[in-house]
């Protein structure tokens, strides 16, 4: 009789398991197998009988409410899609980046696409020397106010006196707000010179721009993210001159400004304020790393999980306590040459994977690539110029691991003045720059037109992949930025002291978009869509955060990762404040993903991030999210 009673109970359960193909129903079987029916239960008679016999205790079922997309959220993923080239392989960051609960992550979906290029705007009016993506999906960029006429005048008309030239006025725009979807341009007013300045987003989403040249060398400029906002400026806000300095946010939302020409120090400024009490600290490390031709400007700066700060200049690096000025530790020398301006290599903090037992203690790794010899600028600066080959090597080091050493590998081609961008997948894009020479006016030759995809979790020797080349040289004073749809905006290139449209490498006002391989049309069937989270775009440190998604495939924690990207301020080949976090997963279905927000501002400084759901190397469109206490 007992077997008949069990059968009567078994049949409805089998019906439920058949019905729930795309539903998340957890009956407590702790099934670790990949299930094609998309529920957390093995519907075999043996497992169900185990449940009925009391060998498996049920947990409380979860029935998430359905979520529906709001109009326009998915964007135009098909627009400007990357062409498929069977001769070139695809792929993204490897399994280690997912950190799933149910074993190793599944491999990324493959594509034959090498990426694709389109011209997004034939003339933006202003050469892009510095760029920042804002939380309203507008990109702000500017060059310098001392290059003479640009290609667009202020609208509405605005003129200001030209410093050091009595009687002259300048009615040309030197900054713009660029709509990354439509290409529409709005001119911006700049009262102080932004040449070779620094910047970043504040915790409230404002662009805080610091330093520059002439009357701008101690300036602070603040611009809110709105459709008609302008910069507010204080020409004497900084404690020291900041020309070729680096700006980076600390755990409490304040900024550290490091170095600059003639500034062997750093200072800390509060966010979003034009006037405050100066906090300046000496930094003898910048004296020690200065060559005859500097090679320590725009130092590479990163906040570490313990709240200390990593600083790399020339070929050396240290870790400091930013609030006391104390040097905590000096790291090994990186051999091969100089890496900072004007030798101008590239660097990034590799993605931080928080799927670890104690995220606060996560080990973090920095990569430094390219550059040139210590004396390269001595020969490229003035005629008759000699252009030394750029460096090909890259070094990686765990910066908060005692005794760590540099691990060296080589790019497929030499590169100086390139950009290094963290992609939503956890891969790195190396783009722009030249093969010989250095930064500065007319100091380089042989543009490097071939982007590189670097997959940090692949085996050494298999990490670099060449992508589709551009047809436009992007050399000195060019920029790039990751956009919410995963495309890369590429603009700028002006190697001359004035706008020159007839030179061998002319001033370039065209704006391109590059679609990385993960945007190939053959991957669209695997692409998640983030649905409207309504008011739930605010994250709190250490708290659960739910993301509503739509995905036409059954998935679990081995298929999905969620990344969180801090859009940087990019200039002169370095993306200041750039950071990508791989969030800790809690639950995954094809309707909802729950993650744990980063534990503190030491891991994720407060402010605005782009959040992506990545399905085996195929990212969703990004959603803006803000994290704070």
Give an account of the 3D structure:
- The chain is mostly beta strands and 629 residues long.
- The strands form 11 sheets. Strands 21, 35, 37, 40, 43, 44 and 45 form a 7-stranded mixed sheet that branches.
Instruction: Give the strand content.
Output: 25-35%
> Mean pLDDT, rounded to whole units?
87
Largest sheet: 7 strands, mixed
Q: How widely separated are the two ends?
A: 60 Å
Number of helices: 4
Kindly state the number of beta strands.
45
Query: pLDDT under 50 segments (min length 5)?
Result: 1-102
Rounded to an integer in angstroms, the radius of gyration calculated over CA atoms is: 26 Å
Q: Class by helix and strand content?
A: mainly beta
**Percentage of residues assigned to helices:** under 10%
Shape: globular
**Oligomeric state of this protein:** single chain
Keywords: Signal
Protein name: Galactose oxidase
InterPro entries: Gal_Oxase/kelch_b-propeller, Gal_Oxidase_central_sf, Glyoxal_oxidase_N, GO-like_E_set, Ig-like_fold, Ig_E-set
Pfam family, one: Glyoxal_oxid_N
What is this entry, summarized?
6% of the residues lie in helices and 30% in strands.
Summarize the helices and strands and which ones pair or pack.
Blueprint: H1 2-19, H2 45-52, E1 116-121, E2 130-133, E3 138-142, E4 160-161, E5 169-170, E6 175-179, E7 185-187, E8 198-201, E9 207-210, E10 220-223, E11 232-234, E12 246-249, E13 255-258, E14 265-269, E15 280-282, H3 285-288, E16 300-303, E17 309-313, E18 316-320, E19 327-330, E20 346-349, E21 352-353, E22 365-369, H4 376-380, E23 393-398, E24 407-410, E25 419-422, E26 428-431, E27 434-437, E28 444-447, E29 452-454, E30 464-466, E31 478-482, E32 488-492, E33 511-515, E34 529-530, E35 538-540, E36 544-550, E37 560-566, E38 569-571, E39 574-576, E40 579-582, E41 584-588, E42 592-596, E43 607-615, E44 618-619, E45 623-628
Parallel strand pairs: 21-40, 35-45
Antiparallel strand pairs: 1-33, 2-3, 2-38, 3-6, 4-5, 6-7, 8-9, 9-10, 10-11, 12-13, 13-14, 14-15, 16-17, 17-18, 18-19, 20-22, 22-23, 23-24, 25-26, 26-29, 27-28, 29-30, 31-32, 32-33, 34-36, 36-42, 37-40, 37-43, 38-39, 41-42, 43-44, 43-45
